[in-house]
Amino acid sequence: MSQLSVVIITFNEEKNIGRCLESIQGVADDIVVLDSFSSDATEAICRKYNVTFIQRAWKGYSATKNFANAQAKHDWILSLDADEALSEELKKSILSVKQQDKQNPYKFHRLTNYCGKWIRHCGWYPDTKVRIFDRRSAAWEGTIHEKLVVREGVPQLLKGDCLHYSYYKIEEHYRQSDKFSTLSAQSLYMQGKKASLLKLWFSPLIKFISCYVIKLGFLDGVAGFTVCKIAASATFGKYRKLRKLYASETIS
Asked: Each residue of 131-163: pLDDT tens digit?
């Protein structure tokens, strides 16, 4: 793998995109930014770097990422989100494998920064992702939480972390949680799945215990408690909204 294209999708990412683009300097032989018509300074920041900047209406995560991959100059892709950046150790690992003749997809751990705190538990770390792949044998699938499906090769783990700057304020986490709980409820509804009262009340409790106790969220202090609490809240919201969808059938 001698040539590597970095592909990023954006929408109003002025807080993050500069850091992301800066981290891939020296690694990327080609950079594609596919933007869904940002209204902030995202485009202006991207124009300061040597990127191919494309704007296209939002078509969903998987469709957007697959389209962006097709615009790259090279078949080997490093896929990053705008709120991610390569650590120095990960950057060195990528530069090393670029010099090799191996044709493997690669994965790496993702370490999340939550309101200024690095989260190493709660089920958030190591959060291993396959992000370097040959686009001829891989594609993104799924609607809510997109997943990369690799058809050839066994992903090899690289040293170093991808740094994920998730939320700057707790309110942002609540808003995103509410959005995803709505999408999840709609997805379950379309699949014909239901939620009993037992599931509505006990699933959030199980979720909290899993994140905070079993996955050692308590070791992340106040931030860990907040992450686990919102995860439980999202679970409750998902099933509550699902029940409302079925209740609306009765009313109509």
From this structure: 999 999 999 998 777 899 999 999 999 999 999
Burial class (CB in 10 A: 0-12, 13-18, 19+), 220: buried
My answer on whether 112 and 234 are in the same domain is no
The predicted model scores a pTM of: 0.91
Burial class (CB in 10 A: 0-12, 13-18, 19+), 81: buried
User: Measured between alpha carbons, how far is residue 64 from residues 147, 160, 183 in Å?
Assistant: 13, 27, 18
Q: Strand pairing of 52-55 and 30-35? A: parallel
One-letter identity of residue 148: L
Query: Nearest 5 degrees, angle CA 187-CA 38-CA 129?
Result: 50
Q: Is the pLDDT of residue 171 over 90?
A: yes
Shared-domain flag, residues 101 and 194? no
Q: Same domain for 148 and 190?
A: no
Question: Looking at the DSSP assignment, which residues form a beta bridge with residue 84?
Answer: 164
Of 138, 167, 196, which closes a domain? 167
Query: What residues have CB less than 8 Å from 6, skipping those under 6 apart?
Result: 24, 27, 28, 30, 31, 32, 77, 78, 79, 80
Q: Which of 167, 197, 222 is the last residue of a domain?
A: 167
Task: List, for residues 10-66, the tens digit of each pLDDT value.
Answer: 999 999 999 999 999 999 999 999 999 999 999 999 999 999 999 999 999 999 999
